[in-house]
Amino acid sequence: MTHIDVVAVTHRGRKRDHNEDTVSVAGFQSGAVEGQPVRFAVDPIRPVTCLVADGLGGQAEGGRASRLAATAMGDFFFHDREAVVKAVRAANEVVYAEMALNPAWSGMGSTVVVLVLAGDRAICVNVGDSRCFLLRDSHMVQLSQDDSVTPAPGEATVATVVTQTLGGRARMTGVEPHAIEVGVRPGDQFLLCSDGLTDELPPERIEAELAGAADPRTAVERLLRATLDAGARDNVSIVLAAVPCAEEGRDQ
Amino acid sequence: MAELMCPGCKADMPAGTQYCQSCFLTPVTKPSVAENACGDPDCPTGGQPPAAGCRPCGLSGASAPTLSFAWGTVAVPADQPLVVGRENSPIASQLGDYSNISRRHAEVRSDGRALTVVDLDSMNGTFVNDQRLAPNQETPVRAGDKIRFAARLEATVTGEAS
């Protein structure tokens, strides 16, 4: 029996008082203020849904929006890309519906990046600037597509402006989620994170930490430690899903 | 400068530490032991676990302290001191064999959490861990202490949280 090893953590960082990020792994959701890395061993017999939702910081009720978005799709079993895209659109409507309940919640919003591991396919859908990376053979590529202003050539991609979010406006606005589907190979690692990680650490650093760590738990701990050491100006959330290696499968 | 500690693993943190390396938690000011028995700065019961035990931290509560005699255990209620002696004592009937116990030998008092013992100017003396007590002087005893009345009657203090 091989399990997908998922390690998830969410942390408020060192500058913010609250944690407006929400992580969800196979239906288990956390918005802990200063969480510790939790390791899940998920049987891939059913599609595994992991997600990171980053509530819009400094705005009304970012945490509420990210929890709502995570709850709206965290515990479903998605079998194809269209279903995930539909669920992200539905989550957008859920956020707007909640907004209508209280004038103070108007404009709350959240990004979301969802990863579904369904058999030998991986589906990644995102809205906003939370990212999904695939680490294969020690090389990292970004699967998600940021909804942010394209930086001028040669400039760093520390963009704080997102052009599309779940909720985030006073009036109901539809979203156009970015979706990508890739094949899964044994040994693949998928990293979901909020911009609290990618703003503090350059991609090369993340790639090096992931490739150098012995197991997912160590990798997540190292990334979180590096982020906190770098200042952690925003909430930071990390979900690392590791598909078992073929060798491990034969051993067990 | 108050000392810092990690609220998760309770490890000491040097001043200026931003977060615990193993728990990723923000250090908090270390509480002094006197003000907080369980060491948790956020203790909902102020460091004194209730009798039923502390649900958040698991510290066992202070059950009413008792005296364990050779024939059984005798509880000491907080409002009712236990007189040890051959007369007017709840345990007088058990003391037939102990003729060297005075009629009013000693008194054990409780405040609900800890016991104190007073020798009532007895003939043959009261001893805590083989130390003879001065008469009419209250002496605190802790769980595990052995109280000896005269030569042979012994009781062990049990059931105290500390």
Task: Itemize the secondary structure elements and their pairings.
The complex is a heterodimer of chains A (252) and B (162).
Chain A lengths: L3 E8 L9 E5 L2 E3 L7 E5 L5 E8 L6 H12 L7 H19 L9 E10 L2 E7 L3 E6 L2 E4 L23 E2 L10 E6 L5 E5 L1 H4 L4 H10 L3 H14 L6 E7 L3 H6 L1
Antiparallel strand pairs in A: 1-4, 1-13, 2-3, 2-5, 5-6, 6-7, 6-10, 7-11, 8-9, 8-12, 12-13
Chain B lengths: L3 E2 L6 E2 L14 E2 L36 E4 L2 E4 L6 E3 L21 E5 L4 E5 L6 E3 L2 E2 L6 E3 L4 E4 L3 E6 L4
Antiparallel strand pairs in B: 1-2, 1-3, 4-5, 4-13, 6-7, 7-8, 8-11, 9-10, 9-12, 12-13
Summarize the structure in words.
The complex is a heterodimer of chains A (252) and B (162). Chain A has 252 residues and is an alpha+beta fold. Chain A has one domain (4-152, 160-251): Phosphatase 2c, domain 1, CATH 3.60.40.10. Helix content of chain A is 26%, strand content 30%. Chain A has helices spanning 62-73, 81-99, 195-198, 203-212, 216-229, 246-251; strands spanning 4-11, 21-25, 28-30, 38-42, 48-55, 109-118, 121-127, 131-136, 139-142, 166-167, 178-183, 189-193, 236-242. In chain A, strands 2, 3, 5, 6, 7, 10 and 11 form a seven-stranded antiparallel sheet that branches. Chain A has a six-stranded antiparallel sheet with strand order 4-1-13-12-8-9. In chain A, a hairpin with a 2-residue loop joins strand 2 and strand 3 (28-30). In chain A, helix 4 runs antiparallel to helix 5. Chain A is globular, with a radius of gyration of 17 Å. With 162 residues, chain B is mostly beta strands. Chain B has a domain at 66-158: Tumour Suppressor Smad4 (Sandwich). Helices cover 0% and strands 28% of the residues of chain B. In chain B, a hairpin with a 2-residue loop joins strand 9 (126-128) and strand 10 (131-132). Classes of the chains: A alpha+beta (252), B mainly beta (162). At the A-B interface, helix 5 of A face loops of B.
